[in-house]
Amino acid sequence: MKIVGSFFIAVCLCTQSFAQVIKHDKNLLRTIDKNFIDAAAQYKFLAKNLPPDKFPKTYFPTTGKYEFSNSGWWCSGFYPGTLLYLYQQTKDTALYNEAMRILVPLKKEQFNKRTHDLGFMMYCSFGNANMIRPSEEYKEILLNSARSLSTRFNPNVGCIKSWDGKPGEFIVIIDNMMNLKLLFWATQVTGDSSFYKIAVSHANTTMKNHFRADNSSYHVLNYDSATGAVQQKKTAQGYANESAWARGQAWGLYGYTETYRETKDKKYLEQANKIASFILSNPNLPADKIPYWDFNAPDIPNALRDASAAAVMASAFLELSDYVDKQLAKKYFKTAETILKNLSTEKYKAATGANGGFILQHGVGHMPNKTEVDVPLTYGDYYFVEAMERYKNYIIVNVN
Question: What is the CA radius of gyration of the chain?
């Protein structure tokens, strides 16, 4: 059974069908094919440098040192997920075998109830594995993951808890929109609507409270766990409480696009379009569409760019372009195209054998903590590969 990633071909076939085919860049298509080959070589190089049962976090070019994690780190699913995406494109069995190896220590996280990131950890990994070669084992792992994630839902608040705080606190971050797809999938597979209802409640509550009048998003909200009242709106990884942290905006864009896909409720499409408008009309968005790490960083235009945020945006814009009218579709598609072109240049895409085996350079993880700053990031690679796959699949569906 041949599956093309991220359900994107299915999405294209069952939505508007894009009677208006947007002219694509044939040179970019050739670049993407080369990028897949280069990325496969990079990830085989990275695999050779991994300690047993460890997952890559980042690499520091200035020192030549890696940082690894255990399976409980929120990024653990991206490495196997990227390997599986690359296997789909290259059919290199070494990539598939490495993914199978690293899925073994990740498997136990299906019972982890201490994190909201099981969508990232388990759906980006086991979900991709199940799309390539469906199995009852993968299905059960994913369902257990959805059950574990559901335990963090509080009906008083209407959200899934992101971080554990002080007694009475209920912390929710915009990133959590990315974990809802695991719950939607669980309802599709089992018919149990409880997962769907939790996901919709979280999306609705987040839409109500996380966004400002200009459609930018706060990073962190602190709710009263008993009453559901908002106690605090702030940031953790952004420049300031009232600033627009770039990757947070990308998480929101992607999350509401995905929620519209799963529910077909137009309010989520409207929300995704509002977020897109904030991003694309922002005077601090550079012409190359690779955002500064925060749209309100004080040292713009000298502020660091965040390639990881750009990769997430590119993937989201490509899917969103299939749900909107011709004018918006062209705008979103061309934005994604611009991002992919620029991420494919030597400024952002590492040379083969460099960057510790990671694909992209210049990601910004946590600027206020001064951690993972101007380094490669596993999620940057994952969404870059996903975006390239989506671009290629769009051309297959709509042009060929």
Answer: 19
| Per-residue confidence (pLDDT) for residue 395, from 0 to 100 | 84
pLDDT in tens, 57-93: 999 999 999 999 999 999 999 999 999 999 999 999 9
CB atoms closer than 10 angstroms to residue 365: 22
Three-state DSSP class for 66? strand
What mean pLDDT comes out for the span 219-243? 98
Parallel/antiparallel/unpaired status of strands 371-375 and 230-234: unpaired
Please provide the DSSP assignment of 262-331 as one string: HH--HHHHHHHHHHHHHHHH-TTS-TT---BSBTT-TTTTSSPB-HHHHHHHHHHHHHHTTSS-HHHHHH
209/271 Cα distance (integer angstroms): 13
- Catalytic, 92? Answer no
Q: Tell me what pLDDT residue 396 has.
A: 79
d(CA 274, CA 88): 33
Q: What's the chain's average pLDDT?
A: 94
Active-site pick, 117, 322, 374, 381: 117
The class of domain 5-398 in CATH terms is mainly alpha
Verify whether residue 117 is a known catalytic residue.
Answer: yes
Residue type, position 141, single letter: I
Cis bond before residue 301 (omega within 30° of 0): yes
Catalytic residue among 53, 92, 164, 175: 175
Residue-wise pLDDT tens digits, 182-206:
999 999 999 999 999 999 999 999 9
What are the residues facing 211 on neighbouring strands? 217
State how far the Cα of 252 lies from the Cα of 229, in Å rounded to an integer.
21
Judged on CB neighbours under 10 Å (0-12, 13-18, 19+), 2 is exposed
- Band of pLDDT at residue 23, cut at 50, 70 and 90: confident
User: What sign does the dihedral 269-339-251-83 (CA atoms) show?
Assistant: positive
DSSP for 219-256, written as a single string = SEEEEETTT--EEEEE-SSSSSTTS-BHHHHHHHHHHH
DSSP 94-131: HHHHHHHHHHHHHGGGGG--S-STHIIIIIIIIIHHHH
Q: What is the C-alpha separation between 246 and 291, in angstroms, rounded?
A: 7
32 bridge partner residues: none
Q: How far, in whole angstroms, is CA 288 from its chain's centroid?
A: 20
C-alpha–C-alpha distance, residues 35 and 385, integer Å: 9
Q: What does DSSP say about strands 153-154 and 159-160: parallel, antiparallel, or unpaired?
A: antiparallel
